[in-house]
Design a protein that fits this description.
- With about 425 residues, the chain is α/β, with parallel strands linked by helices.
- It folds into two domains: about 130 residues, Rossmann fold (3-Layer(aba) Sandwich); about 240 residues, EAL domain (TIM Barrel).
- The protein is built from 16 helices and 14 strands.
- The strands form two sheets. An eight-stranded mixed beta barrel has the order 7-8-9-10-11-12-13-14. A six-stranded parallel β-sheet has the order 2-1-3-4-5-6, with helices on both faces.
- β10, α11 and β11 form a beta-alpha-beta unit.
- α2 packs parallel to α3.
- The protein is elongated.
């Protein structure tokens, strides 16, 4: 031993933890010969944490693989004492633990089997605030850092390309809008049309575009562009047919709805609240919608029955329309459980003077069952596929959507010719 550790840190106090007694004895002797004061030893994580908490040593020397784990001990000691430096020693095979150890705030890492002066050097460096990694561990750390920087660069490049693609799509309006009719269940007439977006990129759906836009902070501009393009078609719809457009709560509270709704007859517009992310502030959503609802804008909550959030939307937003999720409608005529849930939602809606739209109707038997249960409106491939307005003669004028639905028993209404209103 050269005595390199003697000097400035001669009186530094150390606690040592290892589950092998002969290792503890060796380390204690080594450190004392170098002028350190070993004030306690332990054989497991709990023991050394208690020692560190009670004695507040200058250094805690920890075996990574002792019972209870050196990583957990490092985390606890770091939270209990900001002045205790933590030096880990372990075998080279433990290098994969380096990243979580560094996150835990260790001050040094020495590989077992290194020359004794390495350990002394690590402790002295930790005490000086410099930190120390054994050469083999340092090489691993550099490789980890290089991999992380490469991964971050790849993420940044992907985000940049996504932003460019989405901004270009917005600027060039490189998407189209199609409309799917919403049908009165009992009179088989179209009373509204939902605007749906189609992008030219094959295999990349509108929900994927929206998810990409959200990931790079462009969800609001993209949704506003889609809504504006759809609303340009509103004059081409008969005055008796409403238009439903989809927006997220994020766009609602952005303060930018006026960009697409100003100058539009909003009493012919249904705003479908979609779920890209949980709503953190329903008060803000209600506030952003209030001025438009006063002018006749109606709110629909999408995908009711598809998850908890949709029911939270219903309770918090008091919509005019509830859209039943496709999962409830599929094979409705053969599923007593689905029938019971749909009946319950319809009953709740009628108590709240809200109307129900069943989405995803793909068979006549499903439509028949919906009529029996008292659903007001339906939408799906069986009733009309999404197409351009030029292809949709069925969206001809038929009913004034502002006429309230008659207050009749829902079972009687299933066979009545009385009009309903979206």
């Amino acid at each position: 031993m050269t005595g390199a550790g003697r000097g400035a840190h001669r009186a530094a106090t150390v606690v040592v933890a290892d589950d092998e007694p002969h290792v503890v004895d060796y380390l204690s002797t080594l450190l004392e010969l170098e002028g350190f004061v070993v004030v306690g030893t332990a054989t497991d994580a709990d023991g050394v944490v208690q020692l560190a908490h009670r004695l507040e040593p200058n250094v805690a020397l920890l075996d990574l693989r002792m019972p209870g784990g050196g990583l957990e001990a490092a985390r606890l000691i770091g939270s209990l004492s900001s002045t205790t430096k933590i030096v880990i020693f372990s075998s080279a095979t433990d290098e994969d633990d380096l990243v979580p150890l560094l996150r835990a705030g260790i001050d040094g890492y020495v590989v077992k089997g290194s020359p004794p002066e390495r350990l002394v050097e690590a402790i002295n460096a930790a005490l000086a605030g410099d930190g120390y990694l054994a050469p083999r561990v340092n090489r691993f750390a550099m490789a980890q850092l290089s991999n992380r920087l490469l991964a971050e660069e790849q993420v940044a490049m992907r985000s940049m390309r996504l932003r460019q693609k989405i901004n270009l799509a917005i600027a060039q309006s490189s998407f189209s809008v199609v409309f799917q009719p919403i049908i009165d269940c009992h009179r088989d007439i179209a009373v509204a049309a939902e605007a749906l977006t189609r992008f030219p990129e094959r295999g990349h759906t509108a929900p994927q575009w929206l998810a990409d836009a959200e990931s790079v902070g462009l969800l609001v501009p993209l949704e506003l562009a889609l809504a504006a393009t759809a609303l340009l078609e509103l004059p081409n719809l008969d005055p008796g047919v409403a238009m439903a457009i989809n927006v997220s709560p994020t766009t609602v509270v952005s303060g930018r709805l006026h960009e697409v709704l100003t100058g539009v007859p909003v009493d012919r517009v249904i705003l479908e609240i979609t779920e890209h992310a949980p709503v953190d502030d329903y008060k803000a959503v209600r506030s952003a919608l209030s001025r438009w609802r006063e002018k006749g804008l109606r709110i629909a909550v999408d995908d009711a029955g598809g998850g908890y959030s949709s029911f939270a939307h219903i309770l918090e937003l008091s919509p005019e329309l509830i859209k039943l999720d496709t999962s409830l409608i599929r094979d409705l005529h053969t599923s007593p459980h689905r029938q019971a849930l749909v009946r319950a939602v319809i009953s709740f809606a009628e108590e709240m003077h809200v109307q129900v739209v069943a989405e995803g109707v793909e068979a006549e038997a499903e439509l028949t069952e919906l009529r029996r249960l008292g659903a007001h409106f339906a939408q799906g491939f069986h009733l009309g596929r999404p197409r351009s307005l030029d292809e949709q003669s069925e969206l001809a004028p038929t009913v004034d959507l502002r006429t309230p639905a008659p207050d009749v028993d829902r079972h009687a209404r299933a066979t009545s010719d009385s009009p309903n209103a979206v």
